Amino acid sequence: MSPDSAIHYEQNVHVREMIARVHWLVRLRWGFVALLLLAAIGAAAGLLPLRLDARWPAMVGAALFLSNLFFLRRSRRLDATDTDERLLRRHGLGEILFDYLALAVIVHALGGLATPAIFLVIPNVVIAALFFGRGHSLVITIAGMLLVAAPVLLTMAGVLPLHDPFGDGVSMSLAHTIVYLAIYAGVVLFSWYLASHITLRLVQDELKLERNYRDILRLDEARTHAIVQGAHELKAPLAAIRSYAWTLRDGYAGPLPDKAREIVARIGERCDRLLSRLTDIVRLSNLQSFVLDAGQRPNTDLIAAVRHAVSEASRNAAARDIVVETTLPDGVDALPVCIGREQLENLLDNLLGNAINYSRDGGVVRMRVAGADGGARIEIEDQGIGIPADALPHVFEEHYRARNAVSHSASGTGLGLPIVREILRLAGGDIDIESEEGKGTRAIVTLPDATENNHPRG
Amino acid sequence: MAKILLVDDDPDITESLTLILEGNGHQVSAVDNTDDIVGTVRRHNPDLVLLDVIFPQDPQAGFKAARALALDQDVNHIPVLVLSAVNQQSDLGFSFSDKDISDDFMPVTGFIEKPVEPAVLLARIDSALRGA
Q1: Quick one: A373 exposed, middle or buried, by C-beta within 10 A (0-12, 13-18, 19+)?
Q2: Which CATH entry fits the domain spanning A300-448: 3.40.50.300, 3.40.50.720, 3.30.565.10, 3.40.630.190?
Q3: pLDDT grade for A183, boundaries at 50, 70 and 90
Q4: By the number of CB atoms within 10 A of the CB, which of A92, A156, B95, B101 ranks highest?
């Protein structure tokens, strides 16, 4: 990844984070709306231990409710891919200022300094610190603090009537009021300092984490590349050795004594096994590196792929008198599934190969394909050696091979099913394996529909 | 018995295939690259070309060579069998097999998976020659 796209990525992380906060703020506000409406009902029913005109909380609650509907609509339209930070900040600023305004009304309705309601601004201070950098959040905090304190000051100046919900006859001296407001300002500013400081650290840590994660992905990509490269480099000499072994075995370089021919043939077979193991390693590494290519939406016809896989596999099957029976859905010419052609073929080859490999000579392998809701379902069933119950949980582990599998067939790398599962994990499909030792195995694969709105996982 | 042109960069593969083919009475000439493939084929005038797909300089060299041969009026009647390693993937992330044969995409007679069982190789060569 280029440094430019790394910066872009970090911005995206930041924007996503801000969108999450906007959504969170909207949810939080519903709680306040509920509280205010409860207060309004309580006040109307005379259940509150204070004389509060029910219209106050009802009014503020209704205003918050309506504004929150508006914010909700807007926040749903926010999307990390095309929203710039400025727009998001403006959105956040709108919500925070509106909340301060609502608080100012609440504080005034509760009698100004007669209750500690004025300290309800602190959550808003924290929220502003989350949304904005230190400078901006300080300005917003001071503005909000003054906005909420304004009714108190206006009441003192005689512009607003005094509310006395407790009937205590609030008459605070000027000195008392000044001390109260000074403590209020101190607590608010100290809260801002703590919140913005912690937020700054959090954001820095978050970016560092993201950067490290990208570095690890990059390293992993390089490692995968090295594995694939190394495997390819090993394949060429191995292929040459095998080619020579066959040349010798078949006597093209002159006649060999029987024992020598047998040994040369075994050299060839061992090369064979090594080569198929390397092929599997390359396949698995390539698959794992596909994680970085998430976002494509492949579309492959399952029916054509099944026909192809069956015709390929039938040659091996016929050599051991194994019949492959295929059942395709009636009257369906094509069944598009959301998976790459290469991966689908790889998957079918592996599963059919296993079914044939672990069948007894003369057995039957049944393959059923059906469209399932929003995708497709493939069942591959054999009547072969089956998987022992204690081995079944391990079949998806890399290089694992059950005891009876090893004694039935020496070849096999134990990478087939891990590859299948990896392919399905990336494609958003699933596999289930049912088996009984000595009776046979059934693999049930579900694949996502190509037209459905699903995303490959990564 | 046929004249076969073998195009492969691996000298050991070339030697073993040559032994097998000559052992069956074919006449083999070998080149280790696809440079001026059309000129090479014209010069050797073989009955069949055995072509490797991936060369170290260019992972698509075999593919390009097959197309160049298919486009040349003088040599496009000569059957071309492509040797490709089992599931070998080029850097472009694709592999070839018989299903990819088409006049536009892969204008060749057939694919043989490498390394080749001698009996399979000989059978494929025979059927390609009979078809020609």
Answers
A1: exposed
A2: 3.30.565.10
A3: very high
A4: A92
Asked whether the beta carbons of A252 and B20 are under 8 A apart, the reply is yes
pLDDT at position A287 is 65
Query: What DSSP state is assigned to residue A163?
Result: P
Summarize pLDDT for A257-291 with one digit per residue, the tens.
999 999 999 998 888 888 878 877 777 776 655 44
Residue appearing with tokens 């301060």: A100
Q: Can you tell me which residue has the tokens 């390397």?
A: A278
What is the Cα–Cα distance from A243 to B121, expressed in whole angstroms? 11
* pLDDT value, residue B87: 44
Is the complex ipTM more than 0.90? no
Contact: B86, A276; criterion CB under 8 Å: yes
Collapse the DSSP code of A364 into the 3-class scheme (helix H, G, I; strand E, B; otherwise coil) and give the result. Answer: strand
Backbone angle region of A175, left / alpha / beta, with phi > 0 → left and psi within -120 to 50 → alpha: alpha
Q: What is the CATH number of the domain that holds B114?
A: 3.40.50.2300
Q: Look at residues A239, A269, A117 and name the one whose alpha carbon lies nearest to residue B86.
A: A239
Structure tokens, A261: 């021919």
What does the alpha-carbon distance between residue A4 and residue A281 come to, in Å, rounded to a whole number?
33
Residue B102: predicted pLDDT = 58
Q: Are B115 and B12 in contact (CB under 8 A)?
A: no
Q: Which residue of B89, B99, B115 is in closest CB contact with A243? A: B115
Please tell me whether residue A398 adopts helix, strand or coil conformation: coil
* Spatial distance between the Cα atoms of A172 and A113, rounded to a whole number of angstroms: 9
Contact predicate A339/A300, CB 8 Å: yes
User: Quick one: tokens of A165?
Assistant: 């919900």
- Among A232, A236, A252, select the one facing B23 at the smallest CB separation: A252
Q: Which positions in chain B touch A240 (Cβ < 8 Å)?
A: 10, 12-13, 16, 115
CB B62 within 8 A of CB B52: yes
Provide the residue range defining the domain that includes B43. Answer: 3-131
Q: Show residues of chain B in contact with A286, CB under 8 Å.
A: 89, 93
Residue A228 has pLDDT above 50, yes or no: yes
Q: Are A172 and A112 in contact (CB under 8 A)?
A: no
Q: Enumerate residues 6+ apart whose C-beta is below 8 A from A429.
A: A339, A375, A423, A445, A446, A447, A448
Q: Which two tokens stand for residue B24?
A: 């069956």
Instruction: Report the C-alpha gap between A116 and A367 in whole angstroms.
Output: 73
Of residues B12, B95, B99, nearest to A243 (C-beta): B12
User: Does A243 contact chain B (CB < 8 Å)?
Assistant: yes
Angle between helices B118-131 and B11-23 (to 10 degrees): 70
Total of domains in chain B: 1
DSSP A25-92: HHHHHHHHHHHHHHHHHHHHTT-SSS---THHHHHHHHHHHHHHHHHHHHHHH--TTT--HHHHHHHH
State yes or no: pLDDT of B84 exceeds 90: no
The tally of CA atoms less than 13 A away on the side-chain side of residue A392 is 16
Residues within 8 A of B (CB atoms), A 248-287 only: 250-253, 275-276, 279, 282-283, 286
Q: Respond yes or no on whether the N-terminal peptide bond of residue B115 is cis (omega within 30° of 0).
A: yes
CA A8/CA A164 separation, integer angstroms: 55
